[in-house]
Structures are given as C-alpha cells and as structure tokens.
Amino acid sequence: MRFGVCTTPDQIDVVAAAGFDFCELPARAVMPFDDDAAAAPALRAIAAARIRPESFNALVPAEIPLCGPHADLDTLRAYLRRAFSRMAALGAAIAVLGSGAARRIPDGWSREQALDQLADALALAGEEADRCGITLALEHLNRQECNVFNTVGECATFLRDRRLHHVYLLADLYHIEIEREPLDAVAAAMPRIVHVHVAGGGRHPPDTPGYDYAGFMHVLRNAGYNARISAECAWENLAEQAPVALAFMRARWQGGMV
C-alpha cells in the first residue's frame, strides 16, 4: 500500500519529510489553461520534488461545466488533453474527478438531460485519461457539496448502467460518513475502486477519532484493495501532524493500533 497526502506544490517537501510515498496535487498545479512556456517553471519545480504526484484531484474547474446549457465537450477535450499530458509527464497514475461545481446540475435544468451530459463528459474524460496512461476515478461528494453522485453506490450504479468502462471509482471516508453510507457499498463497488481518500473526525487528520477508520480499512483489505490511500483533510500544522498521521494510517492498514 502507498500512502499520500492531498496538498499543494509548496508543501511537497513537507509531505516527503514526513515519510509519505507520494503527494496528490490539484489539477490546477499543472496550469492547464496556460501554454507550455508559461507552465514550464511550475512543472519543473514539481518534477524536481522529492516525491512524485502520483494522483491529481479537482480535475475540472467550474469554468468548464459538465452539464447544463453551457456544457461543451470540445472545450472539455482540449482542457483535458493538456492537463493529462502534463500529469502523465510528472508520473501521475490517477486523476480524481470530484469537481462539484463543474458537475452540479443547474437549477431548472432537466436532471435526465444532465445525466446524459454527464455520461458523455465522463466517457470523454475516461478515454482521454486512458490515452495518457492515467486512470480516471469518479469521486462521490456529499449532498452539501454537490447535487449528483453523492454516494459510492450511486456512482457505481451510474458507471455500470452507462457502460463507462474507462471510468473508475474513488472511495472517500469523509463523504461516506457525512452521507451515512454503509461500508458494504464500498465492498460491493470493488474492483472498480482504484483510489481512496481518508480523514479523521470532522475532516481533521486521520488519527482524529470520530469516523469508522478501522472499519473502512477492514472492508478495503478484505475486498483486495492494494493501491493508494491519500489523506485529504485540514491540517493545523502539516509538518508536525503528518508523521503522526502516516504512522496511524500504516498501523490501521495492517490492522493494528499506533
């Protein structure tokens, strides 16, 4: 199992010093709206860091809606081709499509039409990711953050029914807890789950009590998951808290206590 942290480029060295295997950066870190010359300094800095960004999140910005009257697949394709090619060059294996603002169904818009648009957008994104050797993972977001794809089960059913073979799933403990989704849904969604996000109670570091972290790890292990786990949470002092969080994550994965 590989352990990482969702962070920003300026914090990569802190994450590396804590002993994590990889970092997970926001897609904006590869500057998808900028040409190669403008993006080069930022990309060189990430490439020179001590650990690789094996995953990226927040894939699609709000400026590129995936459904509604302004959805445009050509714009999406151009954006993703630049983003994915740069992510791949930096060593990425996973791209996470959470992007609640981009995928939110606009008020007054037909939900049926929106779901058709989302299926088309996901199909395109999955194919573009695959073309660059990256696996696309759809993230479920709780209903406070988005009005569609709120649970692991809903996402898994959508991918199956729409036959989106190039799109996979992320399981996020925080959103599972907020939606009170049974952990059985995670087991049922395997082996489509290719990435995992974790946090502790209140979306604090993973070692914070409050969520069924041990139960979540138990389900993943029993289902045969063996890829990456990223801590996605709020840190008060990353340098101090990250090593403790990593020790906790490793111990819980092995089924023990810190």
Can you describe what's shown?
The chain is an alpha/beta fold and 258 residues long. The protein has helices at 12-17, 36-47, 73-89, 100-103, 111-131, 152-161, 173-179, 184-189, 213-222, 238-253; strands spanning 2-6, 22-26, 53-57, 94-97, 135-139, 167-172, 193-198, 228-231. Strands 1-2-3-4-5-6-7-8 form an eight-stranded parallel barrel, surrounded by four helices. Strand 5 (135-139), helix 6 (152-161) and strand 6 (167-172) form a beta-alpha-beta unit. Helix 3 (73-89) runs parallel beside helix 5. The mean pLDDT is 97.
Topology order in helix (H) and strand (E) letters: EHEHEHEHHEHEHHEHEH
Shape category: globular
Which structural class should the secondary elements be placed in?
alpha/beta
- What is the averaged pLDDT score? 97
Uncertain spans: none
Tell me what portion of residues adopts beta-strand conformation. 15-25%
- How many DSSP E strands? 8
Physical arrangement of strands within the biggest beta sheet = 1-2-3-4-5-6-7-8
Ends apart, CA distance between termini: 17 Å
Give a short overview.
With 258 residues, the chain is an alpha/beta fold. It has helices spanning 12-17, 36-47, 73-89, 100-103, 111-131, 152-161, 173-179, 184-189, 213-222, 238-253; strands at 2-6, 22-26, 53-57, 94-97, 135-139, 167-172, 193-198, 228-231.
Key words describing this protein structure:
single chain, 258 residues, alpha/beta, eight-stranded parallel β-barrel, 8 strands, globular
